Amino acid sequence: MRVPRIRLGINIDHVATLRNARGGAWPDPVAAANLAAKAGADNITAHLREDRRHIRDDDIARLLAEVDCPLNMEMAATDEMTAIALKAAPPDVCLVPERREERTTEGGLDAVAQHNQLAPVVAALGQAGIKVSLFIGAERPQIEAAARLAAPAIEIHTGGWCDAVTERREADAETEWQAIVDGAAFAHRLGLEVHAGHGLNYATAQKISTLPEIVELNIGHFLVGEAVFIGLGEAVRRMRTAMDRGRDAARLPAGDSVAS
Which of 20, 33, 131, 182 is most buried by its number of CB atoms within 10 A? Predict the structure, then answer.
């Protein structure tokens, strides 16, 4: 199969987390988004949560008006968020699970059990010309449910794999990795566009970029952390390099390798 360039989406939620810790205007997530775009990001991701713990409504408006990079708006499949998305009209929306007590998004949507809740949201956004993706695990039933919902794209939750890699649980990491490999291939066969994200760092992003079915990675927390030490622009550039190195490996004949 043809192996396209892999897109990099930068999640700027935790720039807003830092801003909100002091209640002021700095650091500005919109400034961070512009910096990320100049450094090589293909799109910007921002999660407007029910409790507005990081991204706020005016951030969404400014990201759309002031950043020369497409916005991927993450949101729960609620009436409130659907109304906001239809009014703001971002080019992309990713539907994610959301619980107030969680620190970050824990696991993917249950698209099987939540079909009746998700269906009208996916339909309304699609009819408005907004491209919808579902943030799900790599399990076949979830991928099949996404296809039945007529969502054009999915984003595979990579948190379990990344945690296992970081914690050096090698058997678990291999199991999680194989699930991602199989899930991405299955989704591609069903005609879904495949994205991935959650917990990725330079090494895991490089490895997952070798999967030709995956066309986009969305990465945030790790890069905001790296920015403390090397700056956001440099962190994005290093991530772009790691992803390109992985993608180049996917284009090589079996047995060849990319020079490090």
Answer: 33
Tell me which DSSP letter residue 150 carries: T
pLDDT for res 260 = 38
Written as one string, the DSSP assignment of 69-87 is: S-EEEEE-SSHHHHHHHHH
199 annotated to a ligand binding site? yes
The helix, strand and coil proportions of the chain, stated in percent and rounded to the nearest 5, come to 50, 15, 35
**What pLDDT does residue 157 have?**
97
Distance CA 227, CA 191 (A): 36
Q: Answer for the pair 52, 16: CB distance below 8 angstroms, yes or no.
A: no
Average pLDDT, consecutive stretches of 10 residues, N- to C-terminus, the chain (260 residues): 87 97 95 98 97 96 97 97 98 88 66 96 98 98 97 97 96 98 98 97 98 97 97 98 94 51
pTM confidence score: 0.92
- Tell me how many domains the chain contains: 1
Answer yes or no: is 99 within a domain: yes
Strand 71-75 with 214-219, pairing: unpaired
Tokens of 157: 């939750």
- CA distances 39 to 69, 138, 159, 181, 219, Å, are 12, 30, 25, 29, 14
**116 labeled binding residue:** no
**Among candidates 210, 161, 176, 216, which has minimal Cα distance to 193?**
216
Residue-by-residue DSSP string for 220-250: -HHHHHHHHHH-HHHHHHHHHHHHHHHHHHH
CATH, residue 179: 3.20.20.70
pLDDT at position 3: 77
- Residues labelled as active-site residues: 47, 74, 198
On whether 20 is known to bind a ligand per the annotation, the reply is no
Structural domain including 158 reads 7-251
